[in-house]
Amino acid sequence: METLGHLAHGFSVAFTPVNLLWCLLGTTLGTAIGVLPGLGPALTIALLLPITYQVAPEASFILFAGIYYGAMYGGSTTSILLNTPGESATIVTALEGNRMARSGRGGAALATSAIGSFVAGTIGTMGVAFLAPVVVKFALAFGPAEYFSLMVLAFITVSAVLGSSSVRGLTSLFAGFVIGMIGVDLQTGQPRFTFGTNELLDGVDVIIAAVGLFAVGETLYMASRRYAGKDEIVPLKGSLYMTAAEWGRSWKPWLRGAAIGFPIGAMPAGGAEIPTFLSYAIEKKLSKHKEEFGTVGAIEGVAGPEAANNASAAGVLVPMLTLGLPTSATAAIMLSAFQSYGINPGPLLLTTQGDLVWGLIASLFIANVILVILNLPLIGLWVRLLKIPAPQLYAGILVFATVGTYGISQSPIDLVILYLLGAAGFLMRRFDFPTAPVIIGMILGPLAETQFRRAMTISNGDWSVFYTHKLSLTLLTLAFIGLAGPHIWAFIEHRRRRGPEHVPGDA
Amino acid sequence: MLNRRRFLMSTAAVGAGLMTSHLSPAFAEGAPQIQLFVPAAPGGGWDQTARTIDQVLRSEKLISGSQITNVGGAGGTVGLPQFISQWTGKGNSLMVAGMVMVGAIIANKAANNLTQVTPIARLTGEFEALVVPAESPFKTAADFVAALKADPTKVPVAGGSAGGSDHILFGLIAKTVGVPATNLSYVPFAGGGEALSALLGNQVAAGISGFGEFSEQVKAGALRLLAISADKRQDGIDAPTLKEAGIDVELFNWRGVFAPPGISDADKAAMVTMIETMAKSDAWATECKNRNWTPILLTGDDYAKFLTEDTARITAILKDLGLA
User: Fold this and answer.
1) Which single residue of A73, A103, A308, B70 has CA 20 to 30 Å from B267?
2) Which stretch of DSSP H or E encloses residue B234?
3) Which helix (H) or strand (E) holds B154?
4) Cβ atoms of A300 and A289 closer than 8 Å
5) In a domain, B238, yes or no
6) A229's torsion region: left (phi>0), alpha (psi -120 to 50) or beta?
7) Which residues of A touch B48 (CB under 8 A)?
8) Higher pLDDT, residue B281 or B3
9) Residue of A nearest to B152 (CA)
10) Is the pLDDT of residue A264 over 50?
11) Residue A188 and residue B162: Cβ atoms within 8 Å?
12) Is residue B36 part of a domain?
């Protein structure tokens, strides 16, 4: 009840006309930068930091929170329409979302992601307001051993995107591992696979890889097929928004996505990508329309990951506001904004800066409402992009991908990487290798490696940490069930149907 | 693209400023324009230093405006070659860099180094802190050292990236107390937040990082501060320096400014004077206090001498750690 009182007070801070304007400005700006690949919320907030010298702390945090949430909404738009993810957390959205857009359901994909973001964002923000102290305790119980086991669990996702041939899928996955390994090894400080190039010391940005493999690869493939007259884009089929059936297929993934995204987002090394992977894998397993995955696009595969990504964005705020722990680039910059005001973010933040924190939380609720109102009418406009004739549309995608990539760090080397990966994406498409496992390998491979080596350093080389820690054992067991479960189940079903007497060698 | 985006951003910022009608005072007439080069992405320590320099120089009317360019990557070793080759002779330009770049140049075996630019001033430093979780059996730095001497592999210590200032301090401590650096169990984390959560979750025995990263947790009683790496006791901090605790090590993760190569002596002298005036202003002192930066001003030739010594010290310890 005490929390409700605080929250009511928070709303009284956020509901002043000036602060509402800041919120509107932030969400609009956030949506815009979310749409542009390369310009993320962290960079935008960093560039806007000087305004902390000019305005009250409440106002700047409401602005920053709006940008942060807005970017999460905007990021999905280009993933769905152009197959060009703007943020790493929306890479998974592109898998099904872009298929849907091509088969005339782009409006529904955008709607389910906007409404799912709203639902999950609101649930996540409620989690921040009411559950933060509990969730943070759970999150801190995660050490390197537990994270490694979580990564193992997340690898199950790969089985959902392998495509028709496991050998090809696993080849893609291992290619992803190798690309992910490029750069300075965090554990030893030694460069790997950089071939003496300074620019490669920081590794290959996963967004550049996704844009290269998905958007550039796809464009090259389309160009090569131009006169074959296949793979037409259907701008719009049926209603612009979601049909009743699509609502029915979306609401459960939204809730499941939020339930996965929030706690993982709250973990210091959880991030936003892993929950989107897990959500995608779960939705594919549970869906009654498996045949739509990877063909015409399944709405569950958009609804779940989008909800997971927004809930995890809310989760990130839990350690930031309760402990002063920045667990993402954006949170780190928001914390440095606290310091510009002479406020030291830490475990005492809630008690010493109650007004500010509760005002911020209240403004997150408001930002969510503004964002859904802002984004739903835009769908009609966005979908019109798909009516652009294919040659011009693909040329536009190429320009957009190039400019966005250059924007990430203004490095010409990044453009070389983009087009090399684009060429690789074209060849993979041509010879039927799935590209999604490359991205999963790039993200999960280095994370799993780092956590594994950390766990082994701490335990002094003792393997037992992975199964003596209860949480870690639980996660590994879940991973085992997820991988072997369907096969065991199929085997049992098989036996039951045929009857035990038909099984050879059965005693 | 950069300029256009920055233009859009500043338009947004100005628009934002207008909404509250708190526009900054008119620029001083006749004051110069300067260029600030940050070899890191926006938001980090160097970037904040650059933006604070810009802010204070403007408010002290020492400049009429500045333009900040970020070229991030690999501890500054991506930006440095650009600053050396493309900014030569530009007397109105400054690059922000620090101890992290010295370490990165050595560890990455970079082709360029800081002897190729013109040292102007060392501005700030952050001393490091050695902390343990509240439940830890180590009550003092001596307890920690005793455990380290007994078996260094049983004392996992969390900190920032391998070869960074935290790792360097751990190596220096071990070397001073006679523990071979190669036996240390150092667990590098990408950011302060992750290292902190490993400490709060009791995953590691101790942690080393900038004092600012830990100060609030220490205040709240979640972490115990064993020692700090400053040169002398600090007001309001209830912990000995490493020297007082019997470990003869002092370390500041310092940040400073450099001019490009090939600038005239007059330009260099003017730049030193301007930065000195800024660093002695009240506005600068307030910013340093807010951000937990210790002002450790050192200019011109003294700074150059310090740079040579520090480079030698860091090279030696990185060699011991097997990173150079």
Assistant:
1) B70
2) none
3) none
4) yes
5) no
6) left
7) 49, 336
8) B281
9) A460
10) yes
11) yes
12) no
- What is the Cα–Cα distance from A321 to B193, expressed in whole angstroms? 12
The predicted model scores a pTM of 0.80
Residues of A with Cβ-Cβ distance to B187 under 8 angstroms: 144, 454, 457-458
Number of domains forming the structure of chain B? 2
- List, for residues B154-178, the tens digit of each pLDDT value: 899 998 888 888 888 999 999 899 8
Residue A300 and residue A289: Cα distance in Å, rounded?
A: 9
- Tokens linked to A223: 């160009």
Q: Which of B186, B196, B220 sits opposite A325 (nearest CB)?
A: B196
B2, B19, B43 ranked by CB distance to A18: nearest: B19
Q: Which domain holds residue B52?
A: 45-63+72-125+254-320
Give the closest residue to A421 by CA, choosing from A440, A445, A439: A439
φ, ψ (nearest 5 deg) of residue B98: -175, -165
Cα–Cα distance list, A471 to A138, A141, A180 (Å): 10, 8, 27
Could A323 and B291 be called an inter-chain contact, meaning their C-beta atoms sit closer than 8 Å? no
Mark whether B131 and B224 lie in a shared domain.
Answer: yes
User: What is the average per-residue pLDDT within A13-30?
Assistant: 89
**Residue B302 included in any domain:** yes
- Which of B12, B20, B323 has its CB closest to that of A59? B20
Start-to-end Cα distance in chain B: 38
The residue ranges of every structural domain in chain A are 2-468
Interface of B with A in 6-35 (CB under 8 A): 6, 9, 12-13, 15-17, 19-20, 22-24
Residue pair A472/B205 in contact (Cβ under 8 Å)? The answer is: no
Are B116 and B263 contained in the same domain? yes
Task: Return the biggest CA–CA distance within chain B.
Answer: 65
Determine, for residues A406 and B156 on separate chains, whether the beta-carbon distance falls below 8 Å: no
Tell me the C-alpha distance between B126 and B278, whole Å: 19
Helices (H), A182-233: 206-210, 217-224
Q: Which two tokens stand for residue B199?
A: 């400490």
How many whole angstroms separate alpha carbon A142 and alpha carbon B145? Answer: 28
- Which of B165, B194, B228 is the last residue before a domain boundary? B228
Residue A256 reports pLDDT greater than 90: yes
Burial bucket for residue B150 (CB in 10 Å: 0-12, 13-18, 19+): exposed
From B111, which residue of chain A is nearest by alpha-carbon distance?
A198
Read off the pLDDT of each residue in A447-468 and give the average, rounded to a whole number: 88
Q: What CATH number does the domain containing B172 carry? A: 3.40.190.10
- Minimal Cα–Cα distance from B212 to chain A, Å? 9
Tell me which of B213, B228, B243 is where a domain ends: B228
Given B5, B17, B219, which is nearest A348 (Cβ)? B219
DSSP A403-465: HHHHHHH--HHHHHHHHHHHHHHHHHHHTT--SHHHHHHHHHHHHHHHHHHHHHHHTTS-TTH
Q: Nearest-CA distance from B224 to chain A in Å?
A: 14
Inform me whether the C-beta atom of residue B180 falls under 8 Å from chain A C-beta atoms. no
Report how far residue A29's alpha carbon sits from residue A130's, in angstroms, rounded to the nearest whole number: 28
**Residue B314: its chain A contacts at CB < 8 A?**
none
Please report, for the domain that includes residue B274, its CATH number.
3.40.190.150
Select the residue of A141, A185, A410 nearest B201 (Cβ to Cβ).
Answer: A141
In a domain, B51, yes or no: yes
For the question of an ipTM over 0.90, the answer is no
Distance between A312 CA and the closest CA of chain B, angstroms: 17
Determine contact: B116 vs chain A, CB below 8 A. no
* Per-residue pLDDT at B224: 94
| Nearest residue to B205 (alpha-carbon basis) of B170, B178, B236, B229 | B170
**B222 and B132, same structural domain?**
yes
B112 φ/ψ angles, rounded to the nearest 5 degrees:
-105, 155
Most B-contacting residue of A27, A58, A184 (CB-CB within 10 A), to test interface: A184
